[in-house]
Amino acid sequence: MQRYRGLAIVAVVIALLPLALPNNYYYDVAIRIGMNATVVVGLNLLIGYAGQISLGHAGFFGLGGYASAILTSRYGWPPLAAMLTGMAGVGIIAFVVARPILRLRGHYLAMATLGLGIIIFMVLGNESSLTGGNDGMSVPALSLLGLTLGSERAWYWVTGGVLLAAIALANNIVDSPMGRALRAVHGSEIAAQVAGVDTVRYKVRVFVVSAVFASVAGSMMAHYVGFITPQVSSFFHSIELVTMVVVGGMASTYGAVLGAAILTTLPQLLSKFEGYEMIVFGLILMLTVIFLPRGLLPTIAAKWRRAD
Predict the structure, then answer these.
(1) Would the pTM of this model clear 0.70, i.e. be above it?
(2) How deeply is 176 buried, as exposed, middle or buried, from its count of CB atoms within 10 A (0-12, 13-18, 19+)?
(3) I need a labelling partner for 212 at 20 to 30 A (CA). Which of 38, 94, 132, 242 fits?
(4) Is 238 within 8 Å of 59 (Cβ atoms)?
(5) What total number of domains does the chain contain?
(6) Which positions ≥6 away from 32 have C-beta within 8 Å?
(7) Residues 228 and 139: beta-carbon distance below 8 Å
(8) pLDDT 10s digits, 74-107
(9) Residue 117 and residue 229: Cα distance in Å, rounded?
(10) CA pair distance 138, 116, nearest whole angstrom
């Protein structure tokens, strides 16, 4: 029940936030928060609940974005059909690579996912005849039910709706037998196997789900910005996403949303220090692991419960 109270709170915040957004710049930041939060909610299922690290998740974000960009701009597909096709394609790719990759553990797993992200980044940059290479490519505007999303306010509501759907789906997964299996894998994979949990199957499932979440957000970002480059699948973007999970709170869906909100807003505040964002993100990640190992929201919630 507590999870759904959290969902209601997020819905209220989304509904009331426009009252505090004076212009399109602030709407733009809010939209980017929503898209990043959608990715991070899925990534939190993989890292926070299943305990499987991924340092290449931005690759799936980029694949989703380029699927929409290529199918709509080069082949004239409707944007929604392109997004759904991108989701399916990314899900298939994630399924194919997940089984061999997720047999690895610890730093071997981190290295494998890092390699996967680098491969995707290199392919998107080198296949210039299809992707536009490092110069990027234009992406048509998103249209739904015959209506083109041409304003930040329209995008805000669509992004908010997608984020709420992502949170609801993540909550259902966490409360399902799959969620219990993922927590068992995180606690002790060997003990889970002894108890009869098919650990490989559940790890593959959550990897695919998290990749599809990233694909959806990538497609939305491509249509929203109207342009896409391979940088959306870069290693730095993957580190940003992981940092959002860790700072907000691993194994906390709403902590993931909080982490996305903080770390999406932070670069706007550090605009004068352009070029040093990586250092700041690394410092935040290091300090969080040292002083707030459970993440921001779980730590606050624990102190609140002790105060009561």
Answers:
(1) yes
(2) exposed
(3) 132
(4) yes
(5) 1
(6) 221, 264
(7) yes
(8) 999 999 999 999 999 999 999 999 999 998 988 8
(9) 15
(10) 25
Residue 112: which residues within 8 A CB-CB, separation 6 or more? 101, 104
231: closest CA among 277, 283, 178? 277
Q: Do residues 216 and 82 make contact, with C-beta atoms less than 8 angstroms apart?
A: no
Count of Cβ atoms closer than 10 Å to residue 270 Cβ: 13
Are 114 and 55 within 8 A, CB to CB? Answer: yes
Alpha-carbon Rg for the chain, nearest whole angstrom, is 19
Q: Determine contact, residues 249/64, Cβ cutoff 8 Å.
A: no
Cα(239)–Cα(258) distance, integer angstroms: 16
- pLDDT over 80 (residue 216): yes
- For residue 28, give the 3-state DSSP assignment: helix
CA distances in angstroms from 185 to 73, 225, 242, listed in the order given: 42, 38, 20
- Residues 6+ away with beta carbon under 8 Å from 293: none
- Domain with 36 in it: what CATH number? 1.10.3470
Q: How many residues does the chain have?
A: 308
Alpha helices in the chain (DSSP H): 2-16, 24-44, 58-73, 79-101, 106-126, 128-131, 152-175, 177-187, 189-194, 199-225, 235-248, 253-269, 277-291, 296-307
Torsion of CA 138, 143, 146, 151, to 10 degrees: -100
| All residues at 6 or more sequence positions from 77 whose CB lies less than 8 Å from its CB, including other chains | 71, 85
Expressed as residue numbers, the domain containing 30 is: 2-307
Residue with tokens 């047999």: 103
